[in-house]
Amino acid sequence: MTTVREAAPHPTVRTVPLRAGGGLLRHLPADAPMAWVHEGEGLVAWGEAARITLPAEDDPGGVARFGEAAAWLADLAARAEVHDAVDAPGTGPVAFGAFTFDPRSAGSVLVVPRVIVGSRDGRAWLTTIGDRAEAHPGEILSRVTPMRPVGPLTWSEGALEPKEWEAAVATAVARIRGGALAKAALARDTFADAERGIDARTLLARLVRAYPGCYTFSVDGMVGATPELLVRREGDRAASLVLAGTRPRGETQDDDDMLAADLLASTKDAEEHRYAVDSLREALEPLAEEVEIPDRPRLLQLANVQHLATPARATLLPGATTLDVVAALHPTAAVGGTPTPAAVELIREIEGMDRGRYAGPVGWIDAAGNGEWGIALRCAQITGSRARLFAGCGIVAGSDPETELAESEAKLRVMREALAD
Ligand SMILES: C=C(O[C@H]1C=CC=C(C(=O)O)[C@@H]1O)C(=O)O
């Protein structure tokens, strides 16, 4: 059942300019921090003015939940009394969201925070959302406690032991070679237990430092730094970054160059990447006047891995919001597969776990339909003192289970290191 924590009947939303500079994360309190930060800019937020939690959905397309969430936010924004002295993407009423990978999993949410601090193109602002006049910005921004270290951790296996996961990859390869499908992205999970509640801000600070070019996010306990931009929408312009095809980074420059050259020359990775680009094009075209996608991927190098990457741009048809695009794109072949229905069925059958919000859309949307959404990768779901980490790999006919396990370990490093004091 959909559950809603409603805002006041006519919430007051006030956006005022702030002096820019100094890093967004320093504003965050320890309790349920929300964040979307890329290259030092973005939004951080806290408190809860309103929330919608969506149930598991039977709709085979899995898109009704996005429509329901968008309609709820539009209704809230229409009832709000908005005073917006900045008027830019991300000002006025904004909701943060995290959707489950599989529509059959419950737990997709949109949260409208009480306080949002934003920064973009050298401008900064503060938005308050509530039923009364909020305190002075100086007062709101001076209440934080220091970030806490994570402390000692106990690690345990997730749904499948590494050998069992390799066997699942081998099953996927056999199904693909048998012609049932062309690609499936298979994931695994692992757990870390701390001795006390994990301070998500500590993880965010480490992620922002280690992966400044990624999209560092925190929504309802889902914390990570994803390199994969599902969509950024500003007015009628949309951008997306497709990733698929991975190598580790080398120990030495020569080693690194060799791995990069190998990735760029690999027919197996080119195939894996092409499926992801094709699925983006197919999903975006009905919503766009024009879609521009380069013919060849380029290399994206992160601290832990390197990917084949294709940036796409589109001019959207009038009225298409960020969540419309998210609904159309999810699940991309980078996290689902090709064809999507067969891949999602195989994932349900052999992965042995519920992905929750891993590999689902995560991001924010404002009342004008602008927003930024990534795919929740290189992330962990934090629940109290427990972190559930996830990583997955695109599997095609030429995939080797042992290599894929090593690749998933390289991807898990992002959150393993963020959790390590
Ligand atoms: C599914 C994940 O990565 C995807 C994104 C980029 C490259 C991928 C790959 O090469 O397999 C994956 O498709 C993950 O990080 O958990």
Automatic annotation (TrEMBL):
Q: Catalytic activity, per the record? A: chorismate = isochorismate
**EC number(s) recorded for this UniProt protein:** 5.4.4.2
Report the domain of life of the source organism: Bacteria
Keyword hit for Isomerase: yes
**What keywords would UniProt list here?**
Isomerase
Task: Tell me what this protein is called.
Answer: isochorismate synthase
Q: Which Pfam families match?
A: Chorismate_bind
| Origin species | Nocardiopsis mangrovi
Query: Which residue range or ranges hold the Chorismate-utilising enzyme C-terminal domain?
Result: 163-411
* Similarity-based family: Belongs to the isochorismate synthase family.
